[in-house]
Amino acid sequence: MRSAPRVWPAALLLATVSTAYPAEPQILLDGVSGARADNVRAHLGVAGEPCDSEDSRLQSALRRLPAEVDAALRVFGHYQATVTPALERGGDCWRLRLAIDPGPVVRLRKVDAGYSGPGAEDPLLRPVADSLRLDTGDRLDHRRYQEAKQALENAAVAQGYRLGSFARARLAVDPVAGFADVEIEYATGPLLRFGAIEYDSLTFDRGLIDDLIGVRAGEPFTSARLLELRRSLGESGRFERVEIDADPAAAVDNRVPVRLTLVPRKRFHYSVGAEYSTDLGPAVTAAFENRRVNRRGHTLRTELRASPVAGQFGVEYRFPRIATARPESFGLDAELAYDVVDTGTTQSARLGGDWRIEHEDAWRERRGIELLHERFDDGDKNRAVTLLTPLWGFDHEALDDARRPRKGRRWSLNLRGSPGPSTQFTQIEAGIGWLDTIGPLKLRLRTGGGATWVSDFEKLPTRYRFYAGGDRSVRGYDYRTLGPKSNDGDVIGGRYFATASAEIELPVHADWGVAAFADTGNAWNDWGGLNSGIGVGARWYSPLGPVELDLAHPLDDPDTDLRVHLRVGIGF
After folding, report:
1. CA pair distance 480, 345, nearest whole angstrom
2. Are 318 and 293 in contact (CB under 8 A)?
3. What pLDDT is recorded for position 371?
4. What's the pLDDT score for residue 521?
5. 9 φ, ψ to 5°?
6. CA 316, 353, 347: angle at the middle one, nearest 5?
7. What is the architecture of the domain spanning 107-187?
8. What's the pLDDT tens digit per position in 503-562?
9. CA distances to 205, 234, 264, 330, 404 from 292, in Å
10. Where are the domains of the chain?
């Protein structure tokens, strides 16, 4: 038998007092707090009454209080609550005080929750039934009961049991005895599997598309595999639009037919642009890409970038590897480059080939080899070196929003080395970046380091030497001005480097923020200490991506007070 909250008759009288209350209603709750108090307030109809409500309306609202408080507290297992209201009118408004006694709590006596049907013995579903937050002796909480139902259904659907339903879902409560029994039985229905996967193959060979799809007929029709299918096709860079039509209700013999609509991207892509950074100054860029050299998915890309400080022209030809467990591609590339620094001018030519593998969770692996010929001219002497260098690397980058990221991470590890002929060396380089939001503040951390073991450092190409300083290194110092120096005082790069940065950003507008930061780092042949810089900056999140303007003070350069740094993109 259910017992409703009781209202003391005398408390229904209006008490007029001389105290003046603020010109808005006040509802004070005694006896409940936290989530219980919040739920009581959400159920009170009197909360919508204005200050000038007539006494008859307020009295009517008070008579509804028992049922409202009862409904609010039953969610938390209180079925015998009592409530004593006291309503007072001030000069401008009214105030209501509710003294609430939630009463005893109902506890779970019997819990029977799980699966029936073909999925009852599925090893992926059994742990779900065992981990429900419903145990004998627990306080009855209607929210946990609903969460348990949802958890059972969601897990079954995710594993491919998409035609299931609740055979039983019962919550029996005896408020006088103070116990409740829970019965939840989810009948999974049959396990659905992928049926035939159909698409029109007018642009690419079927082998390439089948490799991108990855899913095969007969596999369990799980949510994870559907997401992988969409991600693989969408992130392949080959399609402008991907649509997947897969309706479990259309299953035949428990197999779901899948129809793909694949709209390819334009075959040719051209771009011309201009950019600026304080590291490299103004630069012009141009690129051409043939996204479909043939039906086998081969691509060709050329890119030109030129500035007063550095430039390169490169060509890359890539072709996918078909019928592999994960996306893989091979590439051949060539590059001509120049680099102008205070110490002189470097010119280089490079030929390379690599094998790229896309792993789970956006991890990318690269294995390759490159032949580099570099010539350095400082006006007094010339140096020419040629190296054949195998390389291997892993990297991972994830941002929640490319335009205005709030969370992100970056990891990279690269190994390279050469047996000659000019010199022998082995090198390791690693970096970590982390971006997160704490309340209104955005915190950004990054660190990186590298080490080189070389037989003759004088013959190590500039490309493989380490430097520090600049927009994406240690702010407060010019681009590549930190590192070992020659007898003439020119920075020539080092065997080792380490950098670290911490930055905090406060948003001040929808597309603007202000930041404070501290950077430190250096490059050495032998330990030479760290150079640090601190500063403040502005952040503009433009339609094309973040633009960062910083004013940095070098703590270890007495000749410079402030240095301006401007960059485009996420500096982490």
Report:
1. 14
2. no
3. 95
4. 96
5. -55, -40
6. 70
7. Roll (3.10)
8. 999 999 888 999 999 999 999 998 878 999 999 999 998 887 788 999 999 998 877 788
9. 11, 16, 10, 15, 32
10. 9-101, 107-187, 193-264, 268-568
Extract the tokens encoding 125.
């579903």
CATH level 3 topology of 193-264: Ubiquitin-like (UB roll) (3.10.20)
What does the alpha-carbon distance between residue 553 and residue 535 come to, in Å, rounded to a whole number? 6
**What's the CA gap between 492 and 472, in Å, rounded?**
19
**Cα-based angle 72, 75, 80 (whole degrees, multiple of 5):** 70
Residues ≥6 apart with Cβ < 8 Å to 98: 27, 28, 29, 30, 31, 40, 65, 69, 83, 84, 85, 86
Comparing CA positions, the residue from 73, 89, 64 lying closest to residue 7 is 64
What residue type is 55 in one-letter code?
A: D
Query: What value does the mean pLDDT take over residues 140-168?
Result: 91
CB 451, CB 496: distance < 8 Å:
yes
- What pTM did the predictor assign? 0.68
Give the SS3 label for residue 95. strand
SS3 call for 84: strand
For 175, the token pair is: 């408020």
DSSP H or E run through 416: strand 408-418
Q: Which CATH number fits domain 9-101: 3.90.320.10, 3.10.20.310, 3.30.420.40, 3.90.1150.10?
A: 3.10.20.310
Closest CA to 467 of 454, 448, 487: 448
CATH of 268-568, one of 3.40.50.2000, 2.40.160.50, 3.30.365.10, 3.30.460.80: 2.40.160.50
User: Can you say how many angstroms the Cα of residue 564 is from the centroid of all Cα atoms in its chain?
Assistant: 31
User: pLDDT tens digits, residue range 37-82?
Assistant: 999 999 998 888 888 888 888 888 888 999 999 999 989 999 999 9
Looking at per-residue pLDDT, the higher value among 486 and 82 belongs to: 82
d(C-alpha 298, C-alpha 204), whole Å = 10
Same fold, 193-264 and 268-568: no
Q: How far is CA 221 from CA 119, 159, 210, 232, 260, in A?
A: 13, 7, 17, 16, 15
User: CA-CA distance, 212 to 328, in Å (whole number)?
Assistant: 10
What amino acid is encoded at 208 in this protein? L
Q: Please name the residue that has the structure tokens 């003294």.
A: 99
Of 49, 3, 54, which Cα lies nearest the Cα of 26? 49
